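DM from R.C. (forwarded with permission)

"hey, sorry to bug you on a friday — could you get me a structure for this? deadline for the figure draft is monday and I only need the backbone to look sensible"
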Amino acid sequence: MIANGPGEEISPRAVCAEVGVKMPTLYHFFGNKQGLLEAVMDRGFDLYLAEKEAHESGGDPIQDLRDGWDAHVAFGVANPGFYTLMYGKVVPGYSPAAQSRPSQILRGLTERAAAQGRLVVSAEQAAAHILVTNIGVTLRMIILAEEDWELSRSVREGAIAAITGTGTDSSPRSIMHLALEYANARPDVLGQEETAMLSAWLRRLSDSQ
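My reply, with the result:
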């Protein structure tokens, strides 16, 4: 029902009639309508995370952020019913427990990037910046029923530039962060040890600004 009518209200009675059970059965297993919807959300996040885990990490947390962004948008566009239930139903002060699962993965990537000295904001702020912009782009595509991958890539790169300090700012600190990002995104050019050494020098110079 959710897949056939993304964003539409779901009737517990209609669900029971479709399955062939009485309302007390639904209450027995799920407590109420919200419990049923949360179970469906869990299923949506299971499918989403299974798709994300199918993509192997290349070892670069910033590139993993890019890949994760694209996977997030692709899942939402392909599964608008699940996605609007997972991220489009807003209740002030309430966050479904299942949302914490992909958020933890995202936070793990930003923490790795922070440990490499590649962020100009905290790992927590970086994860929040990526998540809110990623959701916004995905919901826009769903609402308009129109894919816009050029916009997605543009917003993605803008978000990454904001958290890594590699935007249009021409200050020495920004230039050093740009070099830091460039080197770590291409460790095969200098080699792993040389890239690590260059990164350490650039971080030291950046910290002195």
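R.C.: lifesaver. DSSP finds eleven helices and no strands in the chain.
me: no worries. Residues 158 and 167 are 8 Å apart (CA to CA).
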